[in-house]
Design goal:
Helix content is 11%, strand content 29%.
């Protein structure tokens, strides 16, 4: 069953308040049969949407709609829209702001986005995520799909804003210099607002100055600097550390995997090396896997896949065609 965020009692006005439009890609024009829909109102500047992984409670997906996440670190950097987080650190990025596209499909408004360029289990495909928006008088978010070996996530987002037809106005926020939805705003489109809503050429002063500022150097040391972005050495040290590559065995070979058990590629290669079967193992029944209706199941010695990992990597499709989300 999918994990859900229930936003009972939250009005559309409350969702819109404090949100900023970051991309014109989230505005879906009327096609004559369906009204204009602007999903920018779902971007939340105050906090990210969060859903716990259905397969492991230690992992949480932080995401925002039509804008970058509030949570950021060295991996989930500026421009990231959906990141997998464990123990306060981002592991994988399933979406970047420039990759967003929106289309109507089978009663849904589907937001598609891509993240890191290579899925470690299928390097020809990037990390991918889709959010299926549907018109509803309540607001509910459900995690529908976690294809780990395909690096694919899918969410269903029920919201009144997907119904469309609402008149949208914008104003330029004088502090963030982003276009904010506001019923009293003088701009009638995101494009009109964004064309003149730009930050001044002189950046505003940082919240620290002189010896009170700290910066992370290229050798991952925290040093006092007037150009630093950290207000204390403790805050700097918590973020100033090198990214550690991790590896795991998959399909008889060593692959990059942020959840991998190995920090050394050489150790991984050694552990992944095939072993010679003993005489007693030769007579054991082989445990193989089959794919049926998108689900991998054990199938004795007759399955077409030799391992669960091989089955998961092929049991589904990432051909870019958007398919409707099945009810849970």
């Amino acid at each position: 069953m999918g994990r859900k965020i229930m936003l009972a009692g939250v009005t559309v006005a409350a969702l819109v308040a404090g949100t900023s439009a970051q991309t014109a890609a989230c505005v879906l024009a009327s096609d004559g049969s369906n009204p204009l829909v602007d999903l920018n109102a779902l971007h939340n500047q105050a906090a990210d949407y969060q859903l716990v992984s259905g397969s492991n409670d230690a992992y949480t997906y932080y995401f925002n709609v039509c804008g970058e996440t509030n949570f950021q670190d060295s991996n989930c950097a500026s421009g990231s829209t959906l990141c997998e987080v464990k123990d306060g650190a981002a592991l994988d990025v399933f979406g970047y702001l420039p990759s967003i596209s929106v289309a109507r499909k089978d009663g849904y408004i589907v937001l598609s986005q891509t993240g890191q360029a290579q899925c470690p289990f299928n390097t020809a495909n990037p990390y991918t995520s889709r959010i299926y928006f549907q018109c509803s008088d309540t607001t509910t978010i459900t995690l529908k799909t976690e294809y780990y070996y395909q690096c694919l996530l899918e969410f269903e987002f029920l919201t009144p804003l997907a119904c469309g037809g609402n008149a949208v106005h914008y104003r330029c926020d004088s502090e963030s210099y982003q276009c904010v939805q506001d019923d009293s705003g003088r701009f009638e489109s995101w494009a009109d607002c964004s064309s003149g809503c730009v930050a001044p050429t002189t950046p505003p002063p940082t919240s620290c100055s002189g010896d009170a500022c700290f910066a992370c150097t290229s050798s991952f040391q925290c040093e006092a600097s007037e150009y630093g972005h950290f207000t204390s050495q403790e805050a700097c040290s918590s973020m100033c550390s090198p990214w550690v590559a991790r590896y795991s065995c998959w399909g008889g070979r060593c692959v990059r995997n942020t959840r991998g058990n190995f920090t050394s590629e050489a150790d991984c290669v050694t552990a992944c090396a095939p072993t010679t079967a003993s005489a007693s193992d030769v007579h054991k029944t082989e445990n193989r896997w089959s794919c049926s209706q998108g689900i991998c199941t054990e199938n004795g010695a007759t399955g077409e896949f030799g391992s669960e990992a091989d089955c998961e990597s092929s049991c589904g499709s990432l051909d870019g065609n958007v398919e409707p989300v099945a009810d849970v």
